[in-house]
Amino acid sequence: MESIKILDKWFKPYLTEAQILERVKAVADQMNEELKDKNPLLLAVLNGAYIFAADLTRMLTIPMEISFVKLASYEGVMSTGKVKEVIGINEDLEGRTVVIVEDIVDTGRSMKRMIESLGTRNPAEIKVCTLLFKPGKLEEDIKIDYCAMEIPNDFILGYGLDYDQQGRQLRDIYVVEER
Ligand code: IMP
Ligand code: MG
């Protein structure tokens, strides 16, 4: 695999699709075991989690539902600190096991906002599932129940994650390269 240029930055290969899918499978196995009698409602956060959610749900063998919500907080490579409202919740969450499915937990602000917002709708429990987690950047007190991979603080893209909306369709994950 070769480095690629997206807008003004170079990115080098970091995780192959096969490596990613192996980790997604491990998370799916864990959910199949722990949530088997709960008919969980997965709420995948658009846009970043669309590919992760598609692969993860097709590895789930338990009764489950999926829907999509949105909230945007990121521009370029720096978090803006401004987190928008959660939109798109049309389901009744009362008494449900809700699993938030995210692409990445960075500072944790977006996830905290999601948990707070969904919490007002009386779910039985809220679980947190993320493809990637940057422990070195975490600023909020969040419990992550399902995590496919922990990564360093570097900016990454591909497999749903973008750099200024570019690169989401890449099958592999790339990391920014200093040149
Ligand atoms: P947080 O609120 O700081 O945890 O940021 C979470 C959101 O920022 C994620 O849902 C992503 O959309 C975006 N984000 C954080 N780190 C990266 C990255 O390395 N690449 C692409 N997007 C990122
Ligand atoms: Mg996101």
Tags for this model:
179 residues; alpha/beta; five-stranded parallel sheet; 3 helices; globular; binds inosinic acid; binds magnesium ion
Mean pLDDT, to the nearest integer, reads 93
Number of contiguous helices: 3
Q: Strand order, biggest sheet? A: 4-3-7-8-9
Could you say which small molecules are bound to this protein? inosinic acid, magnesium ion
Descriptive notes:
It contains 3 helices and 11 strands; from the N terminus they run ββαβαββββαββββ. The protein has helices at 17-34, 50-58, 109-119; strands spanning 4-6, 9-15, 41-46, 65-70, 74-75, 78-79, 97-105, 125-133, 146-150, 156-157, 173-177. The strands form 3 sheets. It has a 5-stranded parallel β-sheet with strand order 4-3-7-8-9, sandwiched between helices. Strands 1-2-11-10 form a 4-stranded antiparallel β-sheet. Strand 5 and strand 6 (78-79) form a beta hairpin. Residues 45, 48, 102-103 line the site of magnesium ion.
How are the SSEs placed, and which strands pair?
Elements: E1 4-6, E2 9-15, H1 17-34, E3 41-46, H2 50-58, E4 65-70, E5 74-75, E6 78-79, E7 97-105, H3 109-119, E8 125-133, E9 146-150, E10 156-157, E11 173-177
Parallel strand pairs: 3-4, 3-7, 7-8, 8-9
Antiparallel strand pairs: 1-2, 2-11, 5-6, 10-11
Helix pairs in contact: 1-2
Bound molecules: inosinic acid (IMP) and magnesium ion (MG).
A few lines on this structure:
The chain is an alpha/beta fold and 179 residues long.
